Amino acid sequence: MSGGAAGGGTRSGNGPSQSVSDDPHADRQAFSGVGIRELVVLEVRFAQEGSATPHTRLAGVHLRTFLLIVVSAALSATSSDDRNNRLGSRQRKTHFPAGLRWPGDSLRGSLVSQPAGPGTPGEADRAPDFATLFGRPADLTSSAPGRVNLIGEHTDYNGGYVLPTVIPQKTFVEIARRRDRRVSVWSGGFPGDGVVSYELGSERRVGGWLDYVQGITWVLGGAGHSIGGIDARITSGVPVGSGLSSSAALEISLARGLREAFGLPVGDVPLALLARRAENEFVGAPVGIMDQMACLLAGDRHALFLDTLSLAYESLPLPTGAELAVINSGVAHNHARGDYRTRRAECERACALLGIRQLRDVGLDDLPRVAALPEPLGRRARHVITENARVLMAVEALRSADCECLGRLFDASHRSMRDDYEVSVPEVDLLVDLARGEPRVHGARLTGGGFGGAIVLLVETGHAASVAGRVADSYARRSGRTPTVLVPPPADVGA
Ligand code: GLA
Questions:
Q1: In this structure, are 365 and 289 located in the same domain?
Q2: Is the CB of residue 475 below 6 angstroms from any atom belonging to ligand 1?
Q3: Looking at the domain assignment, is residue 84 inside a domain?
């Protein structure tokens, strides 16, 4: 599996090597709730789809085998009602101020420089270094990687499950403390802006890249954490608008750096929650918690199995029999059109009609009830419900190193995002189809929020670079777009 280390601050020692919950029983508690009925319904759906192609037929056969294995476990599975009660008492609610606008690609695209190598601070050759910008060396350098979600899309703001891992590309923030309360920042994504400054406590949304920086100092101050002014220099190799969490990589790298610089007594999960709150309430993007948790806690060659309701998480090794490839379609997602917000509102409307608080509270056995919802709410809810089940099955596939099954789940997830959730675009569908045409590809799907962005492929070990290169070439010819192979990172291609 290709991928770089998910490093944290160079002095902090608080990186994602912490990969298990503080409560050793939390994972078991959180993940015990899948019932046999859910698995049966999912299997039936897969088996029906499986009549279409040899690949999906194989998925049906595999899943039937899988069901035999889990029958005994199902005898002691938590009942749906018990599960709903347990989870319902732990729900959180986030309020979004009315009138906030979602920052568009013009904003997101301005955060960082790109492209940049995975293992370097990512600056262009002529970019000024820290000493040139601020007349002294930095005290520390903090970093956070981008993430690629393996499966579990648009489930996080519905209290569901996600399974991301890191990509080699990172965001870096070099920091030097100041004696006053001024924050002066330079971004490699906006070198023309020069050094931009503001006073701590006077953060005001400006509709630009600085909002992500201001959001973090605003949320830390609001939470009672004592920080002083800083000089900061931001660079990154995480591509923007590609569904690979450039925003969270910036938030987390800065938050980590401030934690280290000022000795803030805040753990990783609270830090992720603060970063998400900065994006929700200061920047105005109604995102879930997946990206911040992944950028903080996911490790190289491991998937982070996260229950976004309880925030229990578990680090699962990726199978050695397969590699990941990530290809950016060159179609930047444009959430400024409000598509992400619309999907979130559709889920909330579905919940209101179903009389539940969030879609996590229903399972596959509720699909008949969900099908009665007005369109498109029924399909939206069906995606979330079946996607949650697919994450749980993907976890089982990971545990048994069953790459074939994992690949089938990737394929099913993409179909669900394309047809039920309608967050794909023709270019991304073309990329996925081209990938699926490759014999050594186990599965492929759109990753991230959608409406453009990147795909993730599961490929037989030893073939990721060559397959990704062929798919990208073919896609470029047919679409006229400029794709980028991000994983394996360019330095590994042909190695
Ligand atoms: C974006 C958001 C995440 C998540 C994904 C979709 O990346 O930031 O919280 O909702 O979309 O899975």
A1: no
A2: no
A3: no
Catalytic residue among 291, 361, 402, 411: 291
Question: Do 325 and 287 sit in the same domain of this protein?
Answer: no
| C-alpha 290 – ligand 1 centre gap (Å) | 7
With respect to residue 116, please indicate whether it lies within any of the assigned structural domains. no
Say if CB 177 and CB 228 are below 8 A apart. yes
Probe residue for ligand 1, chosen from 154, 246, 390, 416 as the CB with the greatest number of ligand atoms within 8 Å: 154
CB < 8 Å & 24+ apart, contacts of 45-50: 45/386, 46/408, 46/412, 49/412, 49/415
**Do residues 394 and 285 both lie within one domain?**
no
Atom of ligand 1 nearest to the CA of 289: 9
Distance 195 CA to ligand 1 centre (A): 30
Question: What are the tokens at 309?
Answer: 């309701």
In this structure, is residue 474 part of a structural domain?
Answer: yes
* Beta strands 441-447 and 322-328, pairing class: unpaired
Q: Is 207 left (phi over 0), alpha (psi -120 to 50) or beta?
A: left
b/e per residue, 2-32, with b = 16+ CB within 10 A?
Answer: bbbbbbbbbeeebbbebeebeeeebbeebbe
Q: Is 115 exposed, middle or buried (0-12, 13-18, 19+ CB in 10 A)?
A: middle
Range of the domain at 432: 33-76+319-492
Neighbours of 321 (CB within 10 A): 15
CB 387 near ligand 1, within 6 Å: no
3-state secondary structure 186-213: EECCCHHHCCEEEECCCCCCCCCCHHHH
Distance CA 399, CA 168 (A): 23
pLDDT in tens, 49-87: 433 333 333 233 334 333 423 322 332 222 232 222 222
**Is-contact 252 2, C-beta < 8 A?**
no
Residue 23 lies in a domain: no
Q: pLDDT tens across 376-420, in order? A: 999 999 999 999 999 999 999 999 999 999 999 999 999 999 999
- Give the helix/strand (H/E) hosting 184: strand 182-187
Q: How far does the centroid of ligand 1 lie from the alpha carbon of residue 154, in Å?
A: 6
Residue 129 annotated in active site: no
Closest atom of ligand 1 relative to the 152 alpha carbon: 12
Both 209 and 356 in one domain: the answer is: no
CA-155 nearest atom, ligand 1: 12
pTM for the complete prediction?
A: 0.79
Backbone angles phi, psi at 48, to 5 degrees: -65, -45
pLDDT tens-digit map of 28-54: 233 333 333 344 334 334 433 433 333
Number of domains observed in the structure of the chain? 2
* Whether residues 264 and 361 fall in one domain: no
